[in-house]
Amino acid sequence: MDISLVLPVYNEEENIELLVRELLEVIKTNSLDAEIIFINDGSRDNSFALLKKIALNNTRVKVINFNRNFGQTAAMSAGIDYAQGDIIIPMDADMQNDPKDIVRLFSKIKEGFDIVSGWRKNRQDKLISRKLPSWTANYLISIITKVYLHDYGCTIKAYRKEVLKNIKFYGEMHRLIPAYASWYGAKISEIEVNHRPRKFGVTKYGISRTFRVVLDLLTVKFLIQYSTRPMHFFGGIGFVSLFLGLSSFCFALFLRFVHFASLIQTPLPLLSALLIIISIQFFLMGLLAEMVMRGYYEGQNKKIYIVKDKINID
What we know:
Elements: E1 3-9, H1 13-29, E2 34-40, H2 47-57, E3 61-65, H3 72-82, E4 87-90, H4 101-109, E5 115-119, H5 127-145, E6 157-160, H6 161-164, H7 177-182, E7 188-192, H8 208-226, H9 230-257, H10 268-299
């Protein structure tokens, strides 16, 4: 199968039938070998009943039903686990993503890219509550990860399945897949996609998601740069803290023996002791992280590298 469309659903009963109609029309018109996987993420409305009815009458439509709301990342992860297509294209179920963009994403990824990200250049959302936080998050993610995309938050993207098999999803991690996949050497591109105003229902996401994404970004940054050498991260902070502690202690001695100041009158000795203790804690955290990392790789016989091609190697 060429394409697996993965659509998390949470309380979208008004959109489901119209969305399925559009998706099937695009598949038929363009003769795509595709499946449509809906993941009902604990919807409280009639979403699952509608999806079940549609799936019983069309074998292209497949439904996964969660027993409660686990979140968009978990829903997307389940869809990817059950997907049979070589190319996986996640979409929102609120009809703001245009199904016609599926063909454009598929054509672009066939040019040799591993990931093609959608860019909602003319985004149909509120400025303060949606656009501004999204612009801020996109800027931070691009600067920190060095993977420059205009719209990390756009759900509609195209992935080669082999890229996703190395990635585990937690938190809001699905939005950071391009950044995380770059560590594996993925070729990434971006195209403009159509973004339509929501006709039915209300958005399920607020400004709080931006803060959660930023926290996940810190995790991704650490995993990309230091997952196989955590001591370099914690040890680096430890050395900085140790240097500041010793410098503070030397300055305190300078004040005591050159200017004859009483050490009781300055907080420098206490600051020195605190910084030196913190440095020791960071060194110990680095050692513990090294042991955890080695146990993770060696216990599961995982490699710290990924081989893309082999020539004359059995």
